[in-house]
Design goal:
The structure holds 2 protein chains of 2 kinds. By secondary structure, chain A is mostly helical. Chain A is built from 5 helices and 2 strands. Chain A is elongated, with a radius of gyration of 18 Å. By secondary structure, chain B is of the alpha/beta class.
Chain lengths: 124, 232
């Protein structure tokens, strides 16, 4: 696991996003065990309390579960994983649309441009 | 929660110049705290006060609720910016020296850390590079089972490789029931291992906060925040 951290953003949020992405793209699968706090802290060279916080937040969001005495696991609910996927796609789209609007494109133009780009991609 | 280290209205002067001016702060257990300030800001004075090497002119310094003295020195592990080891020693002598001197010294942990740090027991301290010497000092300091660890400029003047190794060792070997106060002016390389930071300027505390809170509130790294506060 390696993350290029941006020190301007909370570190725990960056690790949360990284783990969510690993789940969405399938590197971490439903029911997989996730690393222990100390192990991940050492690997990422960060404070163990920051990793602890990351895991607590992921737990609160229902993305990981603690099995008493066994450690932490990725949720086995596929619907939860779909939800994360939609949420991440939503974030990307939101940023894209905002960027296009700032460039002066109207909403229907944006749709046309995206449709064209997707078509081009298909031909290649 | 009980505080590990508490300074209350501490003032200390050297030759009429105030090194610390009415300083108060509290460290809670289980945290790694960065004490950040430029040279001459009062960082080392705080370290020496907490280590019980000097006394405040006014105010109080307590560790685990006790005034700093013989009892608190027994639970405080201090890594000064100048090594305590003698140059004639070999690494194994330094370990033995600490083992004889401190009842809370964990020789098994020290041996494990020596391997981690790639230090040879038979090497003479006088032949160690600055980076290797820092690794040894850190090994000696963290091998005690203390309540409070004080690291004064642990990464000052060492190359990036040694620096990374020292940070790894701090993350790997610090004990969660204790606290660690780390003074430095090199913020960028080390800010990710802190829970909290204290900024000190001209003997006064200008900020104490959780690092993630600073990033959330200001959208800035600790390094940028530091430069903002201390920049000319």
């Amino acid at each position: 696991m390696s993350i290029e951290f941006d020190n301007n953003m909370p570190i725990y949020i960056q690790i949360m996003n990284y783990i969510k992405k690993e789940i969405v793209i399938g590197n971490l699968k439903a029911g997989d065990k996730i690393p222990a706090v100390r192990e991940l802290a050492l690997e990422l060279q960060i404070n163990p309390n920051t990793v602890q916080r990351t895991f607590q937040e992921l737990e609160r969001d229902g993305i990981v579960e603690t099995k008493r005495g066994l450690g932490r696991y990725v949720t086995s609910e596929e619907s939860k994983i779909m939800e994360i996927k939609k949420e991440m796609a939503g974030d990307l789209l939101g940023r894209f649309i905002q960027g296009m609007q700032e460039l002066g494109f109207a909403n229907n133009d944006i749709v046309t441009i995206v449709a064209q780009a997707v078509n081009e991609e298909d031909k290649e | 929660m009980e505080s590990v280290l508490q300074l209350t209205n501490v003032t200390k002067s050297y030759r009429g110049k105030k090194a610390l001016d009415n300083v108060s702060f509290t460290l809670s257990p289980g945290k790694i705290i960065g004490l950040l300030g430029s040279n001459g800001s009062g960082k080392s004075t705080i370290m020496k006060l907490a280590a019980g090497l000097i006394q405040p002119a006014s105010g109080t310094v307590t560790i685990g609720g006790q005034l700093v003295g013989r009892e608190t020195r027994a639970v405080t592990s201090f890594m000064p910016d100048q090594p305590l080891t003698e140059s004639w020693m070999r690494v194994e002598n330094a370990i033995q020296y600490y083992n004889d001197f401190f009842t809370d010294f964990d020789a098994a942990k020290a041996n494990e850390m020596l391997t981690f740090m790639k230090l040879n027991k038979t090497d003479r301290i006088s032949t160690l590079s600055k980076g290797m010497n820092e690794r040894l000092q850190l090994t000696l300091t963290l091998s005690r089972n203390a309540k409070l660890y004080l690291l004064d400029e642990p990464i000052g003047g060492v190359d990036p490789v040694a620096r990374a190794k020292i940070l790894d060792a701090i993350v790997n070997y610090y004990n969660e029931e204790s606290s660690m106060l780390v003074s430095t002016h090199l913020v960028h390389d080390i800010e990710r291992i802190f829970d909290e930071v204290i900024f000190i300027r001209e003997g006064k505390i200008v900020l104490q906060d959780e690092v993630e809170n600073i990033r959330i509130t200001h959208g800035k790294s600790i390094d940028e925040m530091f430069k903002g506060v201390f920049g000319e």
